[in-house]
Amino acid sequence: MSTSTMTPRRPGRGKLVKTIPGMSHSQRLRAINGANPPGIPMRSVKGLVLLIACLLVILPFVAVISTSLADQAQINAAGGYVLFPERPTLAAYEAIFRGGVVTRATVVSIGVTLVGSALSVTVVTMLAFALARPGTFGHKPILLMVLFTMLFSAGMIPNYLLVKQLGLLDSYWALILPTLVSGFQVILMRGFFLEVPREIIDAARIDGAGEIRILTRIMVPLSKAALAVIALFTAVGYWNAFFNAVLYMSSAEKWPLQLVLRTYVVDNSSIGIDLPGEYIPPQQSLQMAILVVSLVPICLVYPFLQKHFAKGVVLGAVKG
Amino acid sequence: MKGRSMPGTFFSPQLDRRTVLGLGLSTAAVAAGLTAGCAPGDGSEADGPVSPSERVPLPTHVVFETVPADLKGENGSSDAFLHYPANPPVTVDGVPGDGQPITALASYYLAAPPPMSENAAWQHLNQQLGSEFQFQPVPAADYSARFATTVAGNDLPTMMELAKVARLPELVRARFVDLTEHLSGDAVTRYPNLANLPPAAWQAGVFNNAIYGIPTDRGMWQTGLLFQRSDLIAAMGADAGQVTDFDDLFALCEQLTDSRNSVWALTNTPVAYVRQMLGVPNMWQLDGGNLTNAYEVPEQEEVLNACIRLWEAGVVHPDAFALSGAEAKQLFGSGRTLITYDSYPAWFQYHREQTVGETFDIDGMPLPGYDGGQGTLHLGRPAYSVGAISQGNEDRVETILDIWNYLAAPFGSAEHLSVIYGEEGVNYTLEGSDPVQTERGLREALSLVTLVCAPRVGYFPNDPGVTTKFFEHMKQLAPQGVDNPAIYRYSAAESQNGAELTARLDSEFNDIIQGRKKISDWADSVATWRSDGGDQIRAELEEALAAE
After folding, report:
1. Exposed (0-12), middle (13-18) or buried (19+): which is B42, by Cβ within 10 Å?
2. CB contact under 8 A, B443 and A282
3. I want to staple A149 with a disulfide (CB 3.0 to 4.6 A). Which of A64, A183, A222, B89 is the partner?
4. Can you tell me the distance from the alpha carbon of B5 to that of B154, in angstroms, rounded to the nearest whole number?
5. Which spans of this chain does the record mark as coiled coil (chain B) (predicted)?
6. Mean model confidence pLDDT for chain B
């Protein structure tokens, strides 16, 4: 009588495959993976390809950071971007933070991103929940309106007039409210909510839960992955936005970081005018230093949301 | 407070039924405001041709001569100063402002300045003006969008740089103050620093046969030239200053190129330079009342042949057609390329930014003819931009012009020091008579040169030799200069489609140089340009010129 044991296909996943005692290691791996494990040469090739792919991704970041630490002589010697600065200097960072403009812009961007993302996720979630509930008043017209915004935009000037008439010009709200509700994210969340079994909601209602409680205690906890995705989308959107500030902000002290960055990179702005004075770091270093400053927050946040992000995007892709 | 919106909140009490109705009306007004609403009130065609006898007299030119230049320009070249004049004279009596704020909107090429409350240079300027100067800088790349929305919202600041938008004459008539009675002819002498602006620049401010705009004078500064890294080229035993024709230039480029060591002679294919060597017209050629566009002349095929020769010889940087302006400057500054096409302000910019090594040096190249002799220098536009005063300020026009007069103070005056450098002791100190910016001065100085600018002069006190070299080059090339005969003449078709048509044609020109198209395709490209709007532009400009 042959005996068999159930071997976890992958630790912790609970799915089992059938293995037989006495199987060799490679046979067991084959049973688990469904194919022969690659040999050392193939694994080496794969490793090499992945290494090259990683380098291709990492190298631009290294170049940006290194160039921000380089002086004019090294930039000249490298012909532009420096990979390994021989005499790293923080002069560019000192220059951009000394004036207070970049510091203030960073604070503005962080504030707008945090407040905007929190409000946006809240509003999008509530709207998506309402649109996912059949029988909601004005359900179809409102859904059509949301879909309409994904196809047609009002345009720059009507948007400006709207913001002006709302009295938001030169207010931080002008950076938050115009992009508060994204049709794409509403549809994504609605699709996610529609997948939640109706029986759960009915059970909650029998237990006396109202709509708010159903949303906050059942739907939201079940939708963490989707919420992480839209939170990340929204945060990145607010963090990268600059054009609304161009149109709506009269005071330069209210500019977000991306607009300040744009003046350096696109307009090639100098930190001073063409007059004699103190030493200024090379333009290339200044540009890269501000780029680094603008990248840091997103780089810090992304790893914590990444696992939700991948899951949520896949779910969103097949549910509509 | 005109032109300044108060911050609001989402729960603004302004959001009521009336507001919503207003939104609808305003949206409709955008369409009407920039088209029908801006149409001439008297039914005449805006900026149509005007005969000489009816043409508005330009402001009388009264040159500021109290401070003589160290080096005096000739034939339109700029003056230059080796050092800042000692004891700068005062050009404005009293305080020009009326105590009321002045709002101003203009494009900005520098990093954002610290806010007024933390900015000593800005506060000093306010004090000198006698009015709070509420300046709103806009990143230059986005100025057109900001201008369009600001105009559509009819929320104009007091002083505003005019963007280059379609139907500008109608727009200025609808939204800005006609300054003719204040500035035309001898009237301008009430504002001596504005009278110091040359007539060539003033032409840019004329719309609808009236003076609406005050120009930012640039003289020859926007003219393009070939720069050479004279230090590196001399070290290689060559002399770019001795180029006498195209073959010389080609031989020099081959000598300078060392692509194995990542050194190329040219940053970009010098299309404009070769055109000037071949005597191609500066945009248009006027002959007996008929205009010929520069793209239409047969010499363009020779230009193409010459550029293809340079490109195929490998003497041009391989990324030439994809380089941004900053990248091109970086290549030249770092010595990866040794010759580059740029305009005169870059002369001082390179010297200021390239602080490595004592040997760094640049010079301008001569402009010979293609087969010897002299080329024709295409002079740049004499005004960079135009500033205007928005309607609703008619009762303050003289005060605003007084402030403009202060801001336009010429180099060497006490007011110029305040406007450009800020407060002495805080924003700059004096070394001899030369102001040297402090670290605060470097950050705080406002750059208003896109809104108001006195005639530019050469000045680089860190190294007077740089100033001298700059001055000599400009002075030497000035006699070879040719103007665009249709400059500042208005064509509605050009204002709407001109830039796009030109960009398309330039793109096809570059395609031919890079071998993606044949030289024989050029005639078709020009024919397309003509049928798509080129002929209409020509006809409108010819009509404007014919009236003169």
Report:
1. exposed
2. no
3. A183
4. 11
5. none
6. 88
Which residue in B has a C-alpha nearest to residue A252's C-alpha? B112
Q: How far apart are CA B515 and CA B236, in angstroms?
A: 31
Q: Is A87 on the interface with B (CB under 8 A)?
A: no
Look up tokens 């340079």; give the residue.
B310
Which of B113, B142, B445 has the CB atom closest to A246's CB atom? B142
From B349's Cα to the closest Cα of chain A, the distance in A is: 6
Rounded Cα–Cα distance for residues B167 and B39 (Å): 9
Residues B215 and B273 in one domain: no
Rounded to an integer, what distance in angstroms lies between the CA atom of residue B544 and that of residue B145?
29
- A12 and A128 belong to one structural domain: no
Number of domains in chain A: 3
Q: Do B523 and B318 touch, CB atoms closer than 8 A?
A: no
Co-location of A112 and A82 in the same domain: no
Shared domain for A261 and A149, answered yes or no, is yes
**pLDDT at residue B280 tops 70:** yes
Please indicate whether, in this complex, the C-beta atoms of A165 and B435 are within 8 angstroms of each other: no
Q: What pLDDT is attached to residue A309?
A: 66
Q: Same structural domain for residues A203 and A280?
A: yes
Q: Which residues of chain A lie closer than 8 angstroms to B461, CB-CB?
A: 276
User: Helix H segments across B334-379?
Assistant: 345-353
Task: Tell me the CA end-to-end span of chain B in Å, nearest whole number.
Answer: 43
Q: Is B143 helix (H, G, I), strand (E, B) or coil?
A: helix
The tokens describing B81, both together, are 């100063």
Range of the domain at B314: 224-378+480-488
Of A71, A80, A165, the CB nearest to B22: A165
Range of the domain at A10: 1-37
Whether residue A71 is found in the same domain as residue A158: no
How many domains does chain B divide into? Answer: 2
- The gap from C-alpha A179 to its chain's centroid, in whole angstroms, comes to 15
CB contact under 8 A, B330 and A270: no
Strands B213-217 and B383-389, sheet pairing: antiparallel
Cα–Cα distance, B83 to B245 (Å, whole number) = 37
Residues 6+ apart with CB under 8 A from A222: A196
In SS3 terms, B490-545 reads as CCHHHHHHHHHHHHHHHHHHHHHHCCCCCHHHHHHHHHHHHHHHHHHHHHHHHHHH
Query: Tens digits of per-residue pLDDT, B297-314?
Result: 999 999 999 999 999 999
Summarize pLDDT for B169-178 with one digit per residue, the tens: 999 999 999 9
pLDDT at B31 over 80: no
Confidence of residue B62 (pLDDT cuts 50, 70, 90): very high
Inter-chain contact A273–B30, Cβ cutoff 8 Å? no
B52 has a pLDDT exceeding 50: yes
- pLDDT score recorded for residue A316: 52
Q: How far is B23 from chain A (nearest CA, A)?
A: 6
Given the cut 0.90, state whether the ipTM is greater than it. no
d(CA B381, CA B377): 13
- Residues of B within 8 A of A71 (CB-CB) are 356
